[in-house]
Design goal:
Layout: E1 9-10, H1 22-37, E2 41-42, H2 44-54, H3 56-62, H4 66-80, E3 103-106, H5 108-123, H6 132-140, H7 146-153, H8 158-170, H9 175-185
Parallel strand pairs: 1-3, 2-3
């Protein structure tokens, strides 16, 4: 662990309008993951991992089949202990070592996902605050993000995740989700 860790400024994304609720806790957990990993940026992979740890509904919607859930969590654990650090996408690659930077920053896709989650809550009637499902949908809808790369690597279709989340947020019965899960698996 870096001796200068206490000097790192951990800040909220500048433009996200999230109350001190679920997303703030997820963002704080994602920042801690980035610090522990020695990353200079909080990326969408950190957010996805923090979401999966923070809300039981997320894993069920992100990876409804047991094999998918196992692969997704295994993939994220490998990432958190340092395997697979050479990611194909360029999200976060410019800031790999905390020693080179005084401030832990948010990757552009991570900040955008938080903003999209906050916007989703604003347009939903009767909702004042974004929650974990809003963020999961935002992560799954960005085809170039590290989070979607992780999902695809674990055999999870990000588009199907976004569709399942939209269905769950709209309050449709779970039976409506079964066909989507079967078609994704097959």
């Amino acid at each position: 662990m870096s001796p200068d860790l206490h000097l790192i400024e951990l800040r909220e994304p500048v433009t996200a309008h999230v109350d001190a609720g679920t997303l703030s806790r997820v963002a704080a957990r994602a920042r801690r993951r980035a610090v522990r990993a020695g990353d200079g940026e909080v990326d969408t992979g950190h957010l996805l991992h923090a979401l999966l740890e923070s809300d039981d509904r997320v894993l069920g919607l992100a990876a409804p089949l047991p094999a998918q859930a196992t692969r997704l969590m295994g993939y994220l654990v490998q990432r958190s202990i340092g395997f697979g650090r050479a990611w194909k996408s360029d999200e976060g690659v410019e800031l790999r070592r905390l020693g080179d930077h005084a401030t832990l920053r948010w990757s552009t896709p991570a900040e955008y996902a938080l903003q999209q989650a906050a916007r989703a809550a604003l347009v939903r009637p009767g909702t004042a605050e974004a929650d974990a499902l809003d963020l999961l949908a935002a992560l799954a809808e960005d085809p170039r993000s590290r989070a979607t790369e992780i999902m695809r690597g674990a055999g999870v279709d990000p588009e199907a995740v976004a569709a399942r989340v939209r269905t769950a947020v709209a309050g449709e019965p779970e039976g409506e989700l079964d066909g989507e899960v079967r078609s994704e698996a097959g």
